[in-house]
Design a protein that fits this description.
Blueprint: H1 2-28, E1 37-39, E2 42-43, H2 49-64, E3 68-72, E4 75-79, H3 81-84, E5 87-88, H4 90-101, H5 105-115, E6 121-123, E7 127-128, H6 131-145, E8 153-156, E9 161-164, E10 169-172, H7 174-187, E11 193-195, E12 198-201, H8 210-213, E13 216-221, E14 226-231, E15 234-240, E16 243-244, E17 253-256, E18 259-262, E19 266-267, E20 281-282, E21 292-299, E22 302-307, E23 316-318, E24 322-325, H9 326-332, E25 341-344
Helix pairs in contact: 2-4, 6-7
Length: 345
């Protein structure tokens, strides 16, 4: 029994010595960061407070003083560090790393000491910066990168229609770029270079859809006294017409049919050539009214109408309007809705 008591006492003494030794070792290493602890991507395991602070200053804080560079295709954009107003709390990050090293209490730490274990802990870098500066930077890149899509459309002359092909646009993925910059700033270490991405934007009218966008089109070739009717961009019929005489030319350019009428009244212009009718309104369908049968208004009193002066067709004889034979204007009228484009060349 005496031997047993002595053995028990010796065991307790040994445990006490071990406990004191572990406590002393733990106390001696209380300011040492455990292996396996990182701040962002910076390994601070095995370092004391001052050593960890110096490493973080060199590897995490120093890169924050460099500009953020964004590449898009062959263009480069830089955001100077001074505009970001970056602040890094090195002491706070070291405190977090030390706190993570204390996990498991004395027994857990003792086991790590004895077995050479580590703590798998990543401390998030405590970095603050101006979000407004990043937003302005990204908005500036968007202004430089973004391109509106171009709808397919028509390039007309007096005698032809040509399709101008659609063109895709592009739009910067601004939200993605902001996240990329945020990750770069918060990680501290590593390259401060980001590659921006953009998405393709589609036009509303594709090249294959342009014909359906222009089911009817008119072109006037004043030099050859020809009014062309186009359907689905194909020439449907050409009409011989009269156009405005010298000094009262039919206006050139792109217009649209603004209004239509059957047997339209004539609001006579206050011009010397109108004689006694100047400023009056002549009812439709009467012999004195030169606007015969149909009217398709183009611009500022000029329009397409029928005439019984067939000898004038193929000449510059009108006061600005486009004259057609009565059968031709009656034929054309229902085929041309209000809004139809007309190019006068």
């Amino acid at each position: 029994m005496r031997l047993s008591a002595i053995a028990i006492a010796a065991g307790f003494a040994l445990l006490l010595v071990l406990a004191v030794g572990v406590y002393a070792y733990d106390s001696a290493h209380k300011d040492e960061i455990a292996d396996g602890v990182t701040v962002g991507s910076v390994d601070v395991g095995g370092l004391d407070r001052d050593q960890a602070a110096r490493v973080l200053e060199r590897r995490l804080v120093a890169p924050l003083r460099k500009p953020v560079t964004v590449h898009f295709n062959k263009r480069t954009f830089k955001l100077p560090a001074r505009k970001l107003h970056v602040i890094a709390d090195v002491d706070g990050m070291v405190d977090e790393a030390l706190a993570a090293s204390q996990e498991g209490g004395v027994p857990g730490r003792a086991l790590r000491y004895l077995t050479g274990g580590s703590v798998d802990e990543r401390v998030t870098p405590e970095v603050s910066y101006s979000g407004r500066a990043v937003d302005r930077f990204v908005d500036g890149i968007a202004d430089a990168v973004n391109q509106d899509p171009r709808d397919a459309t028509i390039s007309a002359t007096g005698s032809s229609l040509n399709v101008v092909k659609a063109q895709n646009g592009r739009a910067l993925r601004g939200a993605v770029l902001r996240r990329q910059i945020a990750v770069t700033l918060r990680s501290g270490s590593g390259p401060r270079t980001v590659t921006a991405k953009a998405v393709r934007t589609k036009p509303d009218v594709s090249t294959s859809e342009v014909a359906s966008a222009y089911p009817v089109y008119l072109t006037l070739d004043r030099a050859n006294y020809t009014l062309n009717l186009w359907k689905d961009l194909k020439l449907a019929k050409a009409y011989t017409v009269a156009v405005g005489q010298v000094g009262l030319e039919t206006p050139a350019g792109l217009y649209h049919i603004e209004n239509k009428a059957v047997d339209p009244p004539w609001s006579v212009p206050n011009s010397s050539w109108a004689g006694s009718l100047a400023g009056t309104v002549v009812p439709g369908g009467v012999p004195e009214n030169p606007l015969k049968a149909r009217w398709l208004g183009i611009f500022d009193g000029a329009g397409i109408h029928g005439t019984d002066e067939l000898y004038s067709l193929g000449t510059a004889a009108s006061h600005g309007c486009v004259r057609m034979s009565i059968p031709d204007v009656i034929e054309l009228y229902p085929q041309v809705p209000v809004g139809t484009p007309i190019y006068i060349g």
